[in-house]
Amino acid sequence: MAAGSEVAALLAVVPRWIGASVEGDAAETVEEIELDLGRPPRLHFHDHDEPVTLSREVGREDLQYVLGRVTRFREDNRTGIDRTLHRIACIRDRYHEIVGFTFRIGRAIGEAAQPLQELLETRRNVLVVGRPGAGKTTVLRSAAAILSDQLHRRVVIADTSNEIGGDGQVPHPAIGSARRLQIPLPDHERPADAGARQAGVILQAVINHRAETIIVDELGFAADARVARTIARRGIQLIATAHGASLRDVIFNSELACLVGDPQTIVLSPEEIERRGMMRHTILERTGPPVFDCAVEIVRRGVFVIHPDVAESVDNLLRDLPPQAQTGHPRTGSQPG
Questions:
Q1: In the chain, which segments carry CATH 3.30.450?
Q2: Mean pLDDT over all residues of the chain?
Q3: Distance of alpha carbon 251 from its chain centroid, rounded?
Q4: Which of the four pLDDT bands, split at 50, 70 and 90, describes residue 120?
C-alpha cells in the first residue's frame, strides 16, 4: 500500500471537515489528530512546533461519524485499520461513553534502522531508548525488515500493542518476512499479570518458533527483564526498547536495572575507602554483566547516541563520568562522546 493511500485510509474515518484540513502536502506531515467533545480539534505536524487548532468545535455527530466507521475497540481503548500502522485510541467518561479520539498516523520508514545495520549484523543485543514519539518503534520495524530480508535471520516480533506490525491479523509489510506474535489483552481483574503475559509470548518465540532474533517493543515489567536475561543466556539476539529517554533512566529504574548490570549500593570498608581515596562510605556498582551489549539513544528522528559497550557506559555513569558513546552514524561520521 502506498504511503498516500495509507494516510487516506485513516482520513476516511475522520469527519470530512477535519480531514479537509490535512489534504495535499499537509497529509505528508500530519502525525496526530485530537478530537474532544465540545472543543476544537488539534492537529500535530512533525514540521510544526505547535499544534494547529481548528475553529469549529467537535460535536456528538462527529463522534458518531467515527464510530460508524470504527466499530470495535479493545479493552485498552485502542484499535487500528487492517494492513496499516495507524492507531486510534478513544477517551471515555465515567459512564464509559466515548467523548474523544486520538488518531496517530503510522508511517513505515524503511531506512530508519539503516545506520544501525553494523550493530544488527554482529548479533549483539541492542537496547533502544528515547522519549515518547522519538521513533523507537519505527527503528524496531525497520530493524525487523533488515534482519529478516537482508540478513536472512529467523526473526519473531513480540508486538505489545500492535504498533510494530499494525493492527489486524495480517502484519504490515514494513516488517519484512519477520513473524509477529501479538500479546494477549491483560485481564483487568488481574492487572499484575500484564508483564507475565508479555514474558510468556517472548518465551513462545524461543521455544515454539525457534527465533534467532527476538524484537520487543517496550520492556516495562520486571517479568520482561527476567525473560530477557534468559534469552541472553540462550544466545538469542534481542532487540528491544525500554521505558526511558536515556541509558541513565534505565539504570535507575528498579524494575529494569537488571538489564544493564543490576547496579546495587555497596558499603565500603574503611580499608577500601582509603584505597580508593574516597570520602563516601557507599557507592553504586554493577553486580553482573548487562543483558544488552550496546544501547542506542534516539535524540530525535535520525539522530542517535550509540553506546557500543553498555557495561563501560554504565560504569562511567555510576561514577558520574561521561559515558563512552558515539553520536551520529555508527559507520561513518561518528564522534566519540
A1: 3-104
A2: 87
A3: 18
A4: very high
